[in-house]
Structure formats: C-alpha cells, structure tokens
Amino acid sequence: MNKQDGMAEVAVKRWALVLSPTSNGVFPDQEPIVIAIGDDNFRLEAGALRVKGRVFRYKAPRRPALVRGVRSMTLRKQGDGSYLVNFTVKGVQLFELQRSAPICLPTAFIIGDDDGFTGVKFNSPGAPFRFSRRVIVGEGTCVAPEWPWA
Questions:
Q1: Of 31, 83, 29, 37, nearest in space to 56 by CA
Q2: Tens of pLDDT along 104-134?
Q3: Number of structural domains found in the chain
C-alpha cells in the first residue's frame, strides 16, 4: 500500500464462490465480472476470461502498465459446483486503514446476474502502533457498515 495516497494492490487467494441453489449457473468466459471493494469497482467485460477445461483465466497486458484495475484472475470449477477464486486488483483505496486498523469494507464478487456480498476485514501488520505497507486481507469476516451498491 502506498502510504501517501492509500492506494493498494490487493491479492485474494483461494476464495470459495458457492452458487445459490436458485442460480442458473455462471459462465465466467461469457458474462461480465465485477469486484467491488468499498467504493471501488473493478470490471472485466464479457469475454475477458479465457477457458481451458474447468479453469477460467485473465491476465492484464503488460503494456501499458496497469495503474488501476484487475491485474489477474483465475476461477477453477470444483467438483461440487463451487469455484475457487484468485484475483489481484490494483488501485483499491485503503487510506482509512492508516487511521483505524483494522477496517471492515463491504466486498462483492459479481458474475453476470449472480453475486456474493460480504464484509471483509483489512488490517496492517503492527497496527495500531506501527503502520506497514503490507495489507492483510480477510482475517475472518465482519459486518460491513453499509453497502454502497445496494
């Protein structure tokens, strides 16, 4: 995280996406995907992910250098119908973390018309006595104060 402006690159590993029993299914290679963290939204248009078997992948081009957006994403369909999700987004505003760590931010992962909402805890190692550039994501869920997309 950049200490001057609070912009961070957030990497999420091994996040489980379990579809609702009423879902008509997700098609990550054919539907738009939105990652929302606090007031920040990161969107991949339909067709951005490439499919190979049960794995869907996206990687941002190296040039021009990515300032803000989805750097990479992998969705792996599991045998039970759930998805294992990994993604990295750049340009998440976490300035508030410097004032009051930990913070709980509303977070959403949306594929087409299927969505998952949760509160996610963001923390800084050593807080509150010392602030680090590293950010710890998801030491358990939390109740987000508000849903800016509702």
A1: 29
A2: 888 888 999 888 788 888 887 766 666 667 7
A3: 1
In a domain, 147, yes or no: no
Closest CA to 26 of 72, 69, 78, 70: 78
This prediction has a pTM of 0.85
45: domain range?
Answer: 7-142
Q: Is residue 150 part of a domain?
A: no
Strands of 18-113, DSSP E: 33-37, 40-44, 50-52, 55-59, 69-77, 83-93, 103-111
Q: What is the tens place of the pLDDT at every residue in 48-90? A: 999 999 999 999 998 787 889 999 999 999 999 899 999 999 9
Identify whether 149 is part of a domain.
no
